[in-house]
Design goal:
By secondary structure, this protein is mainly α. 71% of the residues lie in helices and 3% in strands.
């Protein structure tokens, strides 16, 4: 199993997909820090972000519609404001990392199936149990490292580029990341399970890439058609990333973590069952 993990890490470092993922991550962070606004690629929204409020000499200023001012003027206004932690706000959009996690699961799992390497590995006295567990260790490990790396890149880049007025402290962003870890692991579990269910890279990409947006679209439609209470909508993963950083109640945290645990168990189990019964070619 250790040899499989070593081989996966070696292949990961040499795969161009890793560097594409890193470039995308840096681009998302850079744009959010320069624009002083978290960017999100999903469809779910907690509230209206078309207006912002800044503090001037201890008093709340009038709302400003950001569509009426230039990016440069907006930056000047926000740089001199206080009471807004940009780094923590950017972390509410950590759903973006789902698209980075796609690369990791694809390189570690589906490329082996597509290239026919799995059959050779399993024929060399490696059981399916050990193979599955080793892949889980690598995928979840790399995604967790990426998750924390994103946090500290956001924190230090924002501190250097925008200054202390728009920054939290290091412990605050670390605690925020720990609080968000369960939904992040749920995302990884979804991709991990899908990778073993679909096996082939092409099929995996067709399912994984649009999955979150399609699910959010269907959920929005269901909420409107069937008059589902808004409180249930708060357990959608993207919404969860934001609300877990907004001083949530203990009951909401426990319920959210319960939803994440159910998602993880379902997708990992489904992936294992498909892999255990699959005919490896």
């Amino acid at each position: 199993m250790i040899n499989i993990i070593k081989a996966d890490m070696y292949r990961m470092v040499r795969n161009v997909g890793l560097y594409i993922a890193v470039a995308i991550l840096l681009l998302m962070i850079g744009m959010s820090i320069y624009l002083i606004s978290p960017g999100s690629v999903g469809m779910a929204n907690i509230g209206d972000i078309s207006t912002v409020h800044t503090l001037e000499e201890g008093e709340r200023a009038e709302p400003v519609d950001i569509r009426d001012i230039s990016v440069q003027d907006y930056r000047k206004m926000m740089i001199h404001s206080e009471g807004y932690a940009l780094d923590k706000d950017i972390l509410t959009a950590n759903m973006n990392l789902y698209y980075i996690f796609i690369f990791i699961a694809a390189i570690i799992i589906t490329l082996e199936f597509s290239g026919g390497c799995v059959k050779n590995t399993l024929s060399s006295a490696i059981s399916r149990n050990k193979y599955f567990v080793s892949k889980a260790i690598v995928v979840f490990g790399l995604c967790i490292v990426t998750f924390f790396l994103n946090t500290y890149l956001v924190y230090f880049s924002n501190l250097i580029f925008n200054g202390k007025n728009l920054s939290s402290d290091l412990w605050t962003v670390t605690k925020a990341t720990l609080v968000q870890l369960p939904p992040a692991l749920a995302l990884v579990s979804i991709l991990f399970g899908i990778a073993f269910m679909t096996k082939k890279a092409a099929v995996y990409n067709m399912v994984a890439i649009p999955l979150i947006m399609v699910f959010q679209m269907l959920l929005n439609l269901a909420v409107k058609l069937f008059d589902i209470p808004v409180k249930y909508y708060y357990y959608e993963l993207q919404i969860m990333f934001g609300k877990l950083l907004d001083n949530p109640s203990k009951s909401y945290m426990l319920q959210s973590y319960g939803v994440c645990a159910v998602i993880a168990v379902l997708f990992i189990t489904a992936g294992w069952l498909c892999f255990r019964k699959a005919e490896i070619k």
